[in-house]
Amino acid sequence: xxxxxxxxxxxxxxxxxxxxxxxxxxxxxxxxxxxxxxxxxxxxxxxxxxxxxxxxxxxxxxxxxxxxxxxxxxxxxxxxxxxxxxxxxxxxxxxxxxxxxxxxxxxxxxxxxxxxxxxxxxxxxxxxxxxxxxxxxxxxxxxxxxxxxxxxxxxxxxxxxxxxxxxxxxxxxxxxxxxxxxxxxxxxxxxxxxxxxxxxxxxxxxxxxxxxxxxxxxxxxxxxxxxxxxxxxxxxxxxxxxxxxxxxxxxxxxxxxxxxxxxxxxxxxxxxxxxxxxxxxxxxxxxxxxxxxxxxxxxxxxxxxxxxxxxxxxxxxxxxxxxxxxxxxxxxxxxxxxxxxxxxxxxxxxxxxxxxxxxxxxxxxxxxxxxxxxxxxxxxxxxxxxxxxxxxxxxxxxxxxxxxxxxxxxxxxxxxxxxxxxxxxxxxxxxxxxxxxxxxxxxxxxxxxxxxxxxxxxxxxxxxxxxxxxxxxxxxxxxxxxxxxxxxxxxxxxxxxxxxxxxxxxxxxxxxxxxxxxxxxxxxxxxxxxxxxxxxxxxxxxxxxxxxxxxxxxxxxxxxxxxxxxxxxxxxxxxxxxxxxxxxxxxxxxxxxxxxxxxxxxxxxxxxxxxxxxxxxxxxxxxxxxxxxxxxxxxxxxxxxxxxxxxxxxxxxxxxxxxxxxxxxxxxxxxxxxxxxxxxxxxxxxxxxxxxxxxxxxxxxxxxxxxxxxxxxxxxxxxxxxxxxxxxxxxxxxxxxxxxxxxxxxxxxxxxxxxxxxxxxxxxxxxxxxxxxxxxxxxxxxxxxxxxxxxxxxxxxxxxxxxxxxxxxxxxxxxxxxxxxxxxxxxxxxxxxxxxxxxxxxxxxxxxxxxxxxxxxxxxxxxxxxxxxxxxxxxxxxxxxxxxxxxxxxxxxxxxxxxxxxxxxxxxxxxxxxxxxxxxxxxxxxxxxxxxxxxxxxxxxxxxxxxxxxxxxxxxxxxxxxxxxxxxxxxxxxxxxxxxxxxxxxxxxxxxxxxxxxxxxxxxxxxxxxxxxxxxxxxxxxxxxxxxxxxxxxxxxxxxxxxxxxxxxxxxxxxxxxxxxxxxxxxxxxxxxxxxxxxxxxxxxxxxxxxxxxxxxxxxxxxxxxxxxxxxxxxxxxxxxxxxxxxxxxxxxxxxxxxxxxxxxxxxxxxxxxxxxxxxxxxxxxxxxxxxxxxxxxxxxxxx
Length: 1184
Description:
alpha+beta, Serine Threonine Protein Phosphatase 5, Tetratricopeptide repeat, six-stranded antiparallel β-sheet, five-stranded antiparallel β-sheet, 68 strands, 17% helix, globular
């Protein structure tokens, strides 16, 4: 039999950087270029990478040096000239910016970046006519760009041509309604044009935007001037990197050699599609219709050995459904598998259309969910090669509610750390189409709503799922769904759902971060309809956003991101061949660093490489020759661990075929991930690699049909060095890795990193600034509490700082407050209390965290020679007194930590405080501890599982000898190790001096002391307001780990310039003098992002002399708010909406808003001018 072509590969160039570099093409060379030429070219791109890193540190002068080196090495290096122009502009060297921009434009005449930066430089030089020419050239490419329209409006305004400025500002607002710069400039221009009423409306909009802080603004610093004033890095798809020859692909049939022996008896797909069915024969042909779809191939790693195993389902010759599991035994050879079906104990009750693989119970073993016609079965991996059907035990419907599932995905839809299950349902075969005697399948048949099964997590050893399809909005209506891609389409750090429907428009469900999803396909430019049974997905155009590809009968449909959250659609005509193209996958089959699309049809296909921005670009064809069975099955992944992506499908005789990729000798990078906070398999992780001129993003999926090759395999081309790898885990943790080895498997575990906590306090100790502790631990806004309520912030705190920790220098007492984690801190007031007291006493503030108001009133406790308890045991009878006698990072830890961060099994400790405590006038406990906080995500996950958390409460013995609660809310320490106080005056109910402390929080008690003095030792308090306060960039003092449980400290002497944190978008307080904002709590904040530092100095000369025999300690008072970026917190991506002290809740209650009186608006205008936008809030360059 003459072989027919099997597969179609399509490669398309980029859109986002393509617009900067005119044409986005690819490097598909099959033989390496001369090493000296290749290495020299890569060195140019590495110089650009370093220069961009300096720009992102706001060091344009340093950046310019590297860009200059690049163009000195190659005067024709367009990317070097372009970035040199940008660096020169921010270095205020306008002549150089003009020169370099014009050099860039000679090679990149359609680059909006080059036109824009040239226009800005000319504007700065007051060459307005030339500037307008360049800026209008940008609008010819991107007419909706707000920044360009604002710059044009400002040029007209500077020339007193206000009526011409108005339309430009209006265009900016039309395309970005939250742009405060456009609103303010429009108001001014309308006022100067004599249009007072319209001007008032624009001013009102400006005031509203300033108050909400959702706004974007155009500023002066790098990152604030517009997207086209941001540096452009290489991606590996530049025109000087592309080889326009057809890809030289070579696949061999290795099925027999690999021992992948599976035979199907399914009907061909074409026997079902478009079939005319009489009502009278409907029941008799159902089985034939189902049979055409009832086969699947999937790649998994059920035994955790980092080799892909193969799982297949189908209809056997006996017309019964079957499943087969093949274990990968590859060991440096071409691939070898062993049939382990019998040992797996997996059997099917109904025909299966597919399977998805993921660790639903986070036990480290991959489980299998099988779906199909009236079938949904979840098989738990027992760890010994066998599986158990736990479907009904988990409250899942074994018969899929009598629906016909065509697609499914494991996905952490709510980012709570466990995998939910999405099931997409196809045609309804339970009834014949109404009012018809004959119907075309499947077109005339009704669809069936889809299902999202939420994983409730574990409670008392039992896991369960709940149907939340309707409440989330993901049921999708009565469509015939054939594929789903779970991806973060808009890079908002949450998962969205792209749903393919047979004969109906695609749907895109955007995550609303409140447990619901909104269908936005049409709004973002996705309007195509197809009859596809799969969708390719990946960052094809290298703009950092997910793109999609759909097949249709005579063409493919590109759905490419525009880099701004919307899509551009256009068809790709497929060369003549068969009439039906069923499915597609994204992969890099030749390891050149560019993603191709693999298309499956019912007879044959071709290999096509495409470059350019749209259908007008170039194209080269190639053919892979194999004959296939008429089905929709297509799977790809590296079967023999040689770094090349192989292919599985069904060949012409209805048997499994394995095509081993032998076409490439290029370098690669393979990843194996093990999560901690995220779901164990890391499903949903985004990986971004940088290697010289190459940048590539991949995403880890768990869907059937698969949208991309299994696993995470990067092609490097002939690059031999990996500069950096960034992992964005589903939990939101950003992890950068530099020690990455090419051409082998690299294993990475998710870092146990706290993205949020509190700001950090450092104090001058006489020789250096040194770490004290964290503070404002209770100030969190928008934090999801147990029971799905929002936190009520405790906005102020008094932090104890000893006289040894804070010493005078040049008449000043100096502290520094650093924002070091992934949060925004709003500082409202700071002051210093100098507390003088007898040297044989110590003072402690009455500080602790409580679950909610009323919060603890301020007081100062004086103690003298406090002692440990007489005895201490845990609830298992263990002696824990030695662990509590001193602060030494030795704690009672014999309690069970639950799977939810911050949660523990309820546990207790019993303290005998000694008989003298019963006669004390003021018995006082001093408890030094730190807490491993729960966060929004763990609170959400725990509430779904029905697990509650118990803050500490204190009990004493009553007269009946029973434990009785006398302090229902004892409180707990805020953050890192601090000492909290508990006054036991009047709490003892009998002559028993024992107390019992009970909690289910993860609190690590380090020291417990008892004071039995009356607390009346004299103290003298002097309050100092800040004499000066300066906000500036500092970076990130090196994090130190003090124990195995997660206690941190920080080394102020070692500063890391980068940290793996993103920043909230919005406006922050400009750098410089901020003293006036810290004098009193007035809802006028110093707003800081991570990496910011505020130095606050106090006038030590205003302190009175110490009496003889006394000493001086301090209390640092701070008032403010903090907001994290936990995916399940409120408003986690933006600085706004701004909090205020009188608010009833956060998010704001209806009718509430930040104050908009003139005083507060003037504060916003004057101070909060440092903007972090969408383009710059997550900037990252991998540079060693």
